[in-house]
Amino acid sequence: MRxxxxxxxxxxxxxxxxxxxxxxxxxxxxxxxxxxxxxxxxERGPTLLEDFHFREKITRFDHERIPERVVHARGxxxxxxxxxxxxxxxxxxxxxxxxxxVRTPVFxxxxxxxxxxxxxxxxRDVRGFATKFYTSEGNYxxxxxxxxxxxIQDGIKFPxxxxxxxxxxxxxxxxxxxxxxxxxxxxxxxxxxxxxxxxLMSDRAIPRSYRTMQGFGxxxxxxxxxxxxxxxxxxxxxxxxxxxxxxxxxxxxxxxxDPDYNRRDLWDxxxxxxxxxxxxxxxxxxxxxEHAFDFDLLDPTKIIPEEQVPVRPIGRxxxxxNPDNFFAETEQIAFHTxxxxxxxxxxxxxxxxxxxFSYLDTQLIRLxxxxxxxxxxxxxxxPVRNNQRDGYHQSRIHSGTNYSENSLGGGCPxxxxxxxxxxxxxxxxxxxGRKIRKRSASFQDHWTQPALFWRSMSDWxxxxxxxxxxxxxxxxxxxxxxxxxVEQLTLVDHDLAAAVAxxxxxxxxxxxxxxxxxxxxxxxxxxxxxxxxSIATRQIAVLVADGVDSAQLAAVRDVLETAGGxxxxxxAAHDGNVRDTDGAAHPVNRALPTVASVxxxxxxxxxxxxxxxxxxxxxxxxxFIRNAYRHGKPIGGLGAGAGVIGGLALDGIRVAGEGDGTxxxxxxxxxxxxxxxxxxFGRAFTEAVAAHRHWGREPVNG
Length: 702
Fold this sequence. Notes:
It is globular and about 85 Å long. It folds into 3 domains: 40-374, Catalase HpII,  Chain A, domain 1; 448-528, Up-down Bundle (Hemocyanin, N-terminal domain); 539-690, Rossmann fold (3-Layer(aba) Sandwich), CATH 3.40.50. α4 (181-189) packs parallel to α12. By secondary structure, it is α+β, with helices and mostly antiparallel strands. The longest helix is centred in the middle third of the chain and has 17 residues, at 350-366. The protein has 18 helices and 21 strands. Strands 2, 3, 4, 5, 6, 7, 8, 9, 10 and 11 form a 10-stranded antiparallel β-sheet that branches. It has a 7-stranded mixed β-sheet with strand order 17-14-13-18-19-21-20, sandwiched between helices. The protein has helices at residues 6-13, 52-62, 158-165, 181-189, 194-201, 248-257, 261-271, 326-331, 350-366, 448-456, 459-474, 479-490, 494-504, 550-563, 609-617, 619-630, 640-647, 678-690, and strands spanning 40-41, 75-84, 104-112, 127-135, 138-145, 215-216, 221-224, 230-239, 277-286, 312-321, 344-345, 435-436, 539-543, 567-572, 577-579, 585-587, 590-591, 602-605, 635-637, 662-665, 668-671. It starts with 5 loop residues before the first helix and ends in a 12-residue tail after the last helix. Its EC number is 1.11.1.6.
């Protein structure tokens, strides 16, 4: 008989019990018969605090990581202001939504979800879009994302979803990616995730910048007016610059070229005075129309199509100041969905109910105690008067009594009187029902809205989504996970499922007669969200060398920068200066080896025969142009620079021809030999840049 190994005995003592040895239990060993739904009052009622399994599961999850956030760990933030366009008193008594002359200070934090603080910005992921309004009635936090939907319907599943999407537990791989087995295993077994997964596989998941990214409140909330009347509301942020994304090849290369790409862009644009701006809009649904849709308004995996309920613009937000200290402000800011002000209230959305518990619990562990609201970035701009005392990091020096009611302190602080309109009062609604763990049947259609999203995409967006599904599922080792996911895709769209199946080597299930066929929603496609034709803050690379025609280039730059608001960088093989056609020093912004095409929105090759010859002979410059072309970006050739473009044999490019002016073929703009002015060229190139991407190009020759 072999002697017992004491080290092995010690290891076994700390090893978790075999998960296959019996049913799921709580930490106290109590057997659990249901873990997909919180305990609620009826199928559509509020979540109950007595649900010890839900509270234990969420609490344990909230306390898994210190000190960084478990999710949304990598973020960037900025200060700014919000101002309403008009009074919204008809729908809400919230003070910050009344007077167009009053600017409310804000802090916004953008973030990725999956990766830790050290991960890259441009991974395929959901982006957080959290806004803290420092209002005259206290702090209001709109804790949203750049998707209007979420993966799960009930917060009790949140630990499961995040565990699945995070790096796999046995090897802590992969970082900042959803392309692995555990996430897609979860997705294939939980069809409620499909709608958000479709957004995740779209270009929405790889935004060009935070400045060109939408934001959503995700949940259905309530506005409450002074008369106590409630209105269901969905919140939207729409970027003034339009909606723009990267392509997947760019996103991957940028992770190596500049992992801080989105963070750096936000900082640099604010420092340069190019302040990002969003329009704040709402979708409003009268209480009596709660059940007027073919989905449940309380379901956070569903949208209200804008064609059914248009988005009403009610204000704008501008970010105009960077933080002074990343840790003190961006890292320590604490958001909470339950931080609301009079005039904004909750619904019984089971995911929102869970977040209202979870966020406060998270801050308690992450920021070391209950006094995190005293940190400058979290402090309201109005007085705080209560009997909460002591605790870790207490920075206020209190005097007087610390209980209520009291007479020794003059009864202070006293509660507001019943007639005080400034007091927060929850909307009164009747709630009754049996205590159950059961989801409403109105939450059970998991396929129609993914089909709505898919059918709303343009052809190039659909191809990008097919490529994304193939990439993600192609990283899964388990063929059964791949097969189950394709089975779910078949329930959404058979042609999509067939294209994905072909790419990942699985058999296609039979066509399903019940595949939904909703009418497309144009508001969901990038094709309809490009903005107002402005090229403001677009990053344009100009490839120069000795012999550049500086006068011609200056005229074009004036059109792009002064008239268009673009940001132009001149790149050469080395830093410092090059010589122009007159032999004068011509300054260079950056050395070509330190940057790449993926970091810019467009590329221009200016005139000057010697400069053009040098650019054409530079492998890095040629690769720069070819990559820009491959990624659908605008390309310009001016004077002799047009010959460089023509020499690359790009699809359909004409350099010389009859007539005056310019030629633009699929976003490639060149001036003709017979008289187009630099100003004419600048205007034509501006038009090409405003379109952002130009699809349908043939592969690069050579």
